[in-house]
Every structure is written in structure tokens, then in C-alpha cells.
Amino acid sequence: MDELMRQVDGVYERAIFGGEYDGLAEADRALDVVEAALLVQRGRILHCRFVESRVEPPEELGYFERAAELYRGAGDERGEAEARFWIGCFHQVVRDDNPTAVPFLTAAVELSRRSGDDLTLSYALRHLGVAAHMSGNYPEARELLEESTALRRTLDFSAGVAANLVGLVYLAIAENRPADARALADEAAALAKSAGASAITEQIEAARSRI
Fold it and tell me: In percent, how much of the chain has pLDDT > 70?
């Protein structure tokens, strides 16, 4: 963001002091990216408030939709991937609407693969795995969650790996693989403890009680 703002400062000074106006479109694109990044962050904090209160924040979806629009106009596929993931996450988590969520999550997978954003890719795959699990397609859910988990291991994202393993525990339970479920829960607990992810630890214990 600092670099983008320096670009905008440079365009302003060249225009005002040098009479050079050919960089104004470039400045607009840079400002659109900065605005989009801020909108995503605002939306993410509102999502945290939803997780705490379970009350839908009225502005959350609009922030993510506007961010996706701005990123797309600026030709920023990496940013657009993140924004589209969050639109999908909103519909899935806040509104419990997987049919609406899946196309946005799928678009996020495609954009993040093209732009090389493995973190956003891991999130989009995870939530597609959740959707597949909820629809009863256990093999697809397992494949998606395992791909997401492999990416998170590569990124050294221990809390994210632990969160995914919770999903894989529930899949193992659904597929009547109790030994696998216990092993996954044990690994998840160790990772969550090392990462200080107490909320994930609670999820692990809830899953373990179902084995």
C-alpha cells in the first residue's frame, strides 16, 4: 500500500508542477486497489463481529462486493480472488447459503491459482470442501480439504492446518473411520496448541466427542 500511495504522490506532483497528466489513469487504478484492500479489511473485521454475535452485519457483503468490483477494474486478479472468496464465505457462513456461495468460491479458486496466491486458494478450497461435505459428497469434500491442508502445511500455517483437520475428523466420522478420526484429532490438537489457537482447540474437542 505504501508503494501505491507513493505512485499516486508522484503522479500528483508531476501533474501539478510539471503539467504532466498522462499518469492520472494509473493513479486511479492504484487508488482503486488501496480502496479495495481497505474494504476487504473492513469486511473481515465485520465477519469477526458476526462470529462473536451471530448477527449479520448489514455492511459486510457490500464491502466485499465493492472490493471485487474495484480489483476487477484494476486488473488485480490476486485481490479479486480474495474479495470473491469473502463473498462466498459470507453467503456460506453468515447466510448458510451454499448454492449462492459455491460459484464465488469456485471463481476464487480459479483466480488465486492464476495469480499464485496459495493462502487464498487454501481458504477457497476449504470452504468448497465444507460445501461438498454438507451436500453429502464425502469423497470430493475430502479431496478439497486435503488439497487445502497440503497448501497450508507448505505455508507453515499451523492454525489453518488444525482447522482443516477438524473438518477431516468429521468426514472420517461420517465415513465410519474412527481410527482415522482419532489420529486426525490428536494431530489437530497438537497443532492448535502450538499455534495458540484456542478457538480451534474447542472445535477439536467438540469433534472428538462425536467419535
Answer: 100
Give φ, ψ of 102 to 5 degrees.
Answer: -60, -45
What Å distances lie between residue 95 and 10, 39, 198, CA to CA? 44, 20, 25
In this prediction, residue 2 has a pLDDT band, given cuts at 50, 70 and 90, of: confident
Closest CA to 31 of 61, 59, 3: 3
- d(Cα 91, Cα 84) in Å, to the nearest integer? 11
**487464498: which residue's cell?**
120
Q: In the 3-class helix/strand/coil scheme, how is the chain assigned residue by residue?
A: CHHHHHHHHHHHHHHHHHCCCCCHHHHHHHHHHHHHHHHHHHHHHHHHHHHHHCCCCCCHHHHHHHHHHHHHHHCCHHHHHHHHHHHHHHHHHHCCCHHHHHHHHHHHHHHHHHHCCHHHHHHHHHHHHHHHHHCCCHHHHHHHHHHHHHHHHHCCCHHHHHHHHHHHHHHHHHCCCHHHHHHHHHHHHHHHHHHCCHHHHHHHHHHHCCC
Alpha-carbon distance of 128 to 109, in angstroms, equals 9
Domains of the chain: 2-155 (1.25.40.10)
Side-chain half-sphere of 87: how many Cα atoms within 13 Å? 24
Q: Residue 1: pLDDT above 80?
A: no
